[in-house]
Here is the input.
Amino acid sequence: MKPLVIIAEVMDGSLRSVTWELIAAARVIQRLKKLQSDQREEKEGADQKNFPVIQVIVPGQNPMPLAEKISSATGTDVLALKIPNLAAYTSEAYKNCLGPLIRELAPSHILVAHTSQGRDFAPGLAVRLRAASISGVNKIRSHEEGLLYSRPVLNNTRNMVLRPEPGFPLVLTIMPGIFSPQASGVKHPGSIILKEIFSGGGQVRMDHQKILKNKSNHQKLKQAQTIVAAGRGVGERSNLESVLRFAETFSASAVGASRPLVDMGWIGHDNQVGITGASVAPRLYIACGISGSSQHLAGMKESDWVVSINKNFQAPICSHSDLCITADVMDFIHSFMEED
Ligand SMILES: Cc1cc2nc3c(=O)[nH]c(=O)nc-3n(C[C@H](O)[C@H](O)[C@H](O)COP(=O)(O)OP(=O)(O)OC[C@H]3O[C@@H](n4cnc5c(N)ncnc54)[C@H](O)[C@@H]3O)c2cc1C
Here is the structure.
């Protein structure tokens, strides 16, 4: 059976933790394919007990230490792709180096993180591989004719379900914060193959200059013991004043926010929690009128205790909360503060 290939996410020579989530997602595909193959065997009597192996590609100038880390922690096979002249990531260099290598491996799936880096090179890689491509996968499930993949659409209020035609390689960008890495009780490390490729030739049309730090400073959020985070459910910009006073009733607290509030200019990006904001791990996280999108959850899932206040008890945040208070958020805050 064709392998499942994962492109590890490497930034500044370090492995980004989303790589473990890609391995978890590949294991979901592996398990579903095995289940389907077992069912076919039962139905047709043929011995089809084979299922895809997972191969992780680690690109970089010095990929061996990272490859060893992955192989020993997960037992998966790793291809360390040494690119001596790749001082820093560019989508062009990645596509030039990964394209021919992946073509050789002929995988059924290529898994990439749905991060700023993955979103940058994955679509172009899919074009080079003549592969189908699905961006932002947040669910994978079995279907009688293969696997179905979901991705959020319409500002995360709906999920689009896709069934790829068989016979084409499939590039998937996997939404962070969805597929949890499992402790796998590894008995043996996976194999490691080292391969060297020079990026470049006449095809390089851009050069990485530098990464400038943006002005956001999430320090206050990261240091807070309690975060009171406001979402679209607070209704109006003026209500943020009450949210602020509510937050001040807790010691060592800070105010967080979901992205729409930042996008509407109600609050600064310093306050945004989520994959494109801060990742926080306070003792207590109070989500006020926040639905619990995967992008928001990715930033606050390490909180010790989560309390959500939402008028809809079926909002996804409730299943990630230790306590879900079903109420109008501003009514709750005013009663808590004994305000009118
Ligand atoms: C590439 C990408 C990156 C993103 N990065 C981030 C990120 O870093 N952080 C982030 O937060 N989002 C991010 N998003 C946006 C994300 O998909 C969601 O759109 C966003 O998190 C939703 O914010 P929300 O929960 O405040 O709003 P909504 O989803 O609109 O939810 C509002 C919630 O409030 C509840 N509510 C409504 N009225 C009341 C009331 N009166 N009282 C109580 N509850 C009420 C509703 O039931 C609902 O659950 C990103 C999206 C993309 C595509």
About this structure: The chain has nine helices and 17 strands.
